[in-house]
Amino acid sequence: MRNFTGLLINEWLKLSKKRSFFVAYAILVVVFGIMAFAFYKLSPEGVSSTVDFATGTIMLQAAGQLVPVLAVLAAAGSVTQEYRYGTIKFLLIRAQSRHKILASKYLISIVYALTLVVTTAVLAVAAGYIVYGGGAGESTWTDFLINVASLSAYSIVFVTLTFMIGILTKSNGAAIGIGIFSMMVGSLLVMLLSRYTITKYLLFANTDLSVYRSDAVPIEGMTLAFSIVVLLVYMALFLSVSFAVFKKRDIA
Amino acid sequence: MTTAKITNPSIVLQLDGLTKKIGGKAIVDGLSFDIAKGEVVGLLGPNGAGKTTTMRMIVGLIGMTEGDVRICGQSIRTSFEQAIRHVGGIIENPEFYPYMTGYDNLKQYQRMTEGVTDARIQEVTKLVGMQDALGKRVRAYSLGMRQRLGIAQALLHEPKLLILDEPTNGLDPAGIKEMREYLKQIAESEGIAILVSSHLLSEIELMCSRVIVIQEGKLVTVRSLGETEATKQKMLSISMQVGNAGQAQEVIGQTEGVTIAQTDSFTNRITIQLQHDRIPELVAKLSAEGVAIYRIEEVRATLEEEFMRLTGGNRIA
Question: Taking burial as the number of CB atoms within 10 A of a residue's CB, which of A147, B103, B187, B250 is the most buried?
Fold first, then answer.
């Protein structure tokens, strides 16, 4: 177990020792700064409290979209950078199984995504408080937390997908490209295919769990429990493929 | 699959019918050899002979199709973690995380292995003379420095076997000499077995006690290098420059146990074959007969010549 902790620390350091590490957090700070300023100047209708602001901005359709994008950028590099640097050869000739090494990489990719979610949530509330100073609006803290949870789930799903693509292609660019492309095109695809009931089994029809706050489900008959099960099945599939391929692959 | 167990406890590495097939073509084909404690063994072969594939299979980077590799009796295939903990390696160029310092890089590998202390990190960096550069980012390292850090990384967990693929690649002559001395030293003092491949045949000749030549994935020959017990009995090839080749030829022709391989009356050079013990006797006889001797040299087939003979030149398979 002590060994596995060591692997987790290693993976975290590989991310955090990079000079670009703080850029992701800085981007979030800047974006929320701009949003706060815009809301202060324009005072849009329907937003009248800290919670309204925070709940609205953290949505996937707003600033929240940045979180999965930034998380995907890091997840894509987790395995592919080892190939790029050539360090994969040193990494895999230690007294550690490939499964453990990959598990540590995956877990740290998830942890990193969650730090982005938490940062975003804190920034959203802080910016909202600066502009509105509390106040009373339509949204509740429960709405806010549901949005935070949906954002986390969405990010984790795409991190898992990108992680797998990274292992399959060994290419950082391909993993980032496919990860972000599927994020953009996924919801469009669901819209186009929404008249077929089979569409509800598509990954992209289920990634945004925040739809269950209202009744605006993408396809008739979908429930929160259904979506969670579909997401879990897809993630299990992605991870099985990732681990099986990584275990068997020849490092030539 | 069960294979024969190691019987000799000093055997560190054992290859047993190691085979790798890719798309039906055998890259490495039924390779078997042993390496004992403290031995420095060279792996030679023309480009594409399967040297790197063999080395990658030994450290488990590439899966084997058939056969087995055992390190200190543990199979790399069935008990990878137990087997690999005895191995340190550099496969092709040593690569590190360029944005981290040398020290941070070594710490990465320390965390991956039980029982590597901070004192051990100090020890290995001192051993390779990197203590002053350890705080710098690897990005700023020269190839020679990365090579040294690579060795430090490989020795960190006190392995019993070192696998080095082209360890002198990119080093300058001083660096090569230093690396060679250093490898010999750790093999002798710490009893580490070393398997090393290099395309610099003269390097291998200076470094190794034994060479294994492979071609097209198959074992061609195993040969011991350096002075051995049998030297005194061995037929030596001696080239002499004399005052008069014809006269010398006559004298030598009357001497027992000496055969003339070649005579060149133009340069007055004569090449003969005889046993080590018989040389003084022959020299005395030639002098007594009044044959002037200007030079006596041993004609040694270099490893390179032998290599070319064995592999038929550098054909790419």
Answer: A147
